[in-house]
Amino acid sequence: MEPLKTLKNLKHQAFILREHGVPYIKNELYSKWPKIKPYYYDKSRYQMQIGEVTIPSSSTFLVNNLLFETPEIPPAEKAPQRIFAIWFGNEMNENRKKGLETIKKANPNLDFILVTEENLADWTTSAHPLHPAFKNLSAVHKSDYLRTYLMHHYGGVYTDIKALTVHWEPLISELNSDSNLYAVGPAETTFQNVSKSPGNGKLGSDQERYFQQTLYPACYACKPNSPFTQAHLDEIERRLSYFEKLLEKNPAEQPWGLNSNYPIAWNALHGQIFSPLNLKYHKNIKAIPGMVNNFGAHR
Q1: Is the separation of the CB atoms in 66 and 277 below 8 Å?
Q2: Exposure on the CB side of residue 289, measured as CA atoms within 13 A
Q3: Phi, psi (rounded to 5 degrees) for 178
Q4: What pLDDT is attached to residue 221?
Q5: pTM of the model
Q6: Which residues contact 126 (CB under 8 A, 6 or more apart)?
Q7: So what's the pLDDT on residue 192?
Q8: Cα angle, residue 277 at apex, residues 274 and 278 outer, rounded to 5°
Q9: What angle (nearest 5°) sits at the alpha carbon of residue 216, between those of residues 276 and 51?
Q10: CA atoms of 232 and 226, how far apart (whole Å)
Q11: In sequence order, which residues have a C-beta less than 8 Å from that of residue 75 and are 6 or more positions away?
Q12: Which of 49, 80, 84, 122 is buried deepest, with most CB atoms within 10 A?
């Protein structure tokens, strides 16, 4: 009788497995897990390291900015023949200076504006002053915010200060010749560069699979006052409002915001917003693969 009982038991277990599958097994396992490995809180468990920067690998809230519809606004204006770059903090090193000259040399017919602390007031509008949290941001996050602010209110090209050889004049002409386009520029170079939000789910997978439909975040051209730039700026400012009080107590102490209590993850104000919005507005964005040169060292 023992073999018969064993067989019946195995059949019963097989029935349970067939009916309930993996969820049943996981539930059984997890119900015993606290005894196997008791829980203790360690914040490093929910963080990840990218170079010198520590960022969250998990989040206690999700910002569903892709679900919000941008209010109807007039058709986007034409992009001006202008390149913006931004520099805050210490004096540029030689690599940055060479990068600046490379960008200018590749685009001799375009106006080049380097926005710094000295001329920032010239490029802010009284109708839309900078977010009050701006003053406490790291130099990197100031750049993330300002590039979006400038692209929305003024348009043209934004570029990081790297030895990028993109010729922007024909791209701006292409952008302005198509009323359906909001932005144009080189495509992201690899799926590994996309900035996925913590708890990203299917969106994170799509960001990786469709990375070549995403603009390279270090340089791109935009028409001003488009739904794309409006959505981008709105989401950054929502996040800054969330972080405002934390920033008052824990402002950035150096350009990268590497002090341990600085509350904003390195990619939270640009990459985590920019990449998903590229997918949302992919019919209005032209990302061109293979345009980014090997620009070498810049730090």
Answers
A1: yes
A2: 6
A3: -125, 110
A4: 98
A5: 0.80
A6: none
A7: 77
A8: 85
A9: 90
A10: 10
A11: 179
A12: 84
